[in-house]
TrEMBL record:
<protein>
    <submittedName>
        <fullName>Class I SAM-dependent methyltransferase</fullName>
    </submittedName>
</protein>
<feature type="transmembrane region" description="Helical">
    <location>
        <begin position="104"/>
        <end position="120"/>
    </location>
</feature>
<keyword id="KW-1133">Transmembrane helix</keyword>
<keyword id="KW-0808">Transferase</keyword>
<keyword id="KW-0949">S-adenosyl-L-methionine</keyword>
<keyword id="KW-0489">Methyltransferase</keyword>
<feature type="transmembrane region" description="Helical">
    <location>
        <begin position="58"/>
        <end position="76"/>
    </location>
</feature>
<dbReference type="InterPro" id="IPR026170">
    <property type="entry name" value="FAM173A/B"/>
</dbReference>
<dbReference type="InterPro" id="IPR029063">
    <property type="entry name" value="SAM-dependent_MTases_sf"/>
</dbReference>
<dbReference type="GO" id="GO:0032259">
    <property type="term" value="P:methylation"/>
</dbReference>
<keyword id="KW-0812">Transmembrane</keyword>
<dbReference type="GO" id="GO:0016279">
    <property type="term" value="F:protein-lysine N-methyltransferase activity"/>
</dbReference>
<keyword id="KW-0472">Membrane</keyword>
<feature type="transmembrane region" description="Helical">
    <location>
        <begin position="31"/>
        <end position="52"/>
    </location>
</feature>
């Protein structure tokens, strides 16, 4: 079980405001590629007579823009999976407009996806949610009566916090989330339920993990080496790091709990 937290540690963790993340625009390079390609194609049409004549279809121009956008994205160092998105973005819009659909549909879809996957191109941690089996297994690791502090790094829609706060009400819970839409959802969910639980908008890299008895992370393989560096610097002796599914390269867990819902679903525990 967990080491006894000091009363000062508990109140500091609950009272301390989490630094708001200075949100940079993660899609800036994508926007530069798209706008740059549109301007280049436009300049081509205006300056070189006959490149695109009156018979050239809008779709042909859109495909040319897509090719230039993909090339620009590559030149800007974007990862290969971005290239088909760049190549097909404007042709897709032209196709939709040809069907008579309002441009508000693709714009809304774009805004929705951007607000869910806000930092994914940078953090390489997409949104997927812990199962109830995982939440139950985490609850089994927490004290029933004794006070403790818990943080969910990248809390998504706040499901894990909500479940634990109901099942283990002695705890003080904190979640931090980078993506705007999941953050708003989690914040509302937690605000409506009340209790010793709060959610902040921000980057967990700016959070001091030394305030928590239990740190829970369901991230991705790409995030684990950085998380371990941070956890081993900041977490207190006796505190517990739990990773849902993802190993830390070269660091054996103190314990592994197989969840049994999927082949690779497990909790990996490191006692600090
Ligand atoms: C796989 S989901 C897990 C959601 C939730 N913890 C759960 O278990 O259901 C990972 C979440 O972490 C968020 N995230 C990734 N990197 C982050 C960072 N540096 N700071 C805050 N949140 C981050 C993502 O936006 C995503 O919502």
């Amino acid at each position: 079980m967990l080491a006894q937290p000091s009363p000062e540690g508990v109140s500091a963790a609950v009272a301390r405001p989490v630094a708001a993340y200075p949100a940079r625009v993660p899609l800036l390079r994508a926007a530069v590629a798209q706008v740059g390609a549109s301007l280049l194609v436009l300049a081509l049409i205006l300056t070189i007579p006959g490149v695109f004549d009156g018979n050239t279809s809008t779709m042909a121009v859109a495909l040319a823009q897509g090719l230039v956008a993909a090339s620009l994205a590559r030149a800007l160092g974007m990862e290969p999976w971005w290239l088909p998105i760049h190549a097909l973005f404007v042709p897709g819009l032209v196709w939709m407009l040809g069907l008579g659909l309002s441009p508000l549909y693709p714009l809304s879809a774009f805004c929705l996806l951007a607000s869910i996957y806000w930092g994914t191109s940078r953090t390489r941690v997409p949104l997927f949610l812990s199962s109830q089996t995982a939440a139950r297994a985490v609850a089994d690791l927490l004290p029933r009566r004794r006070c403790f502090t818990f943080v969910d790094l990248g809390c998504g829609f706040g499901g894990m916090l909500d479940w634990l706060a109901r099942d283990r009400p002695a705890g003080r819970y904190c979640g931090i989330e980078l993506a705007p839409l999941p953050f708003v959802f989690a914040w509302l969910r937690i605000a409506l339920r009340g209790g010793a639980c709060r959610v902040s908008w921000g980057n967990f890299l700016e959070l001091d993990l030394g305030h928590y008895d239990v740190v829970y992370a369901y991230l991705s393989p790409a995030a684990m080496p950085g998380l371990w560096d941070k956890a081993s610097r900041e977490m207190r002796p006796g505190s517990l790091l739990i990773s849902n599914s993802f190993l830390i390269p070269g660091v054996s867990p103190t314990r592994t709990i197989v969840l049994g819902v999927q082949d690779d679903a497990k909790l990996l525990l490191w006692r600090m």
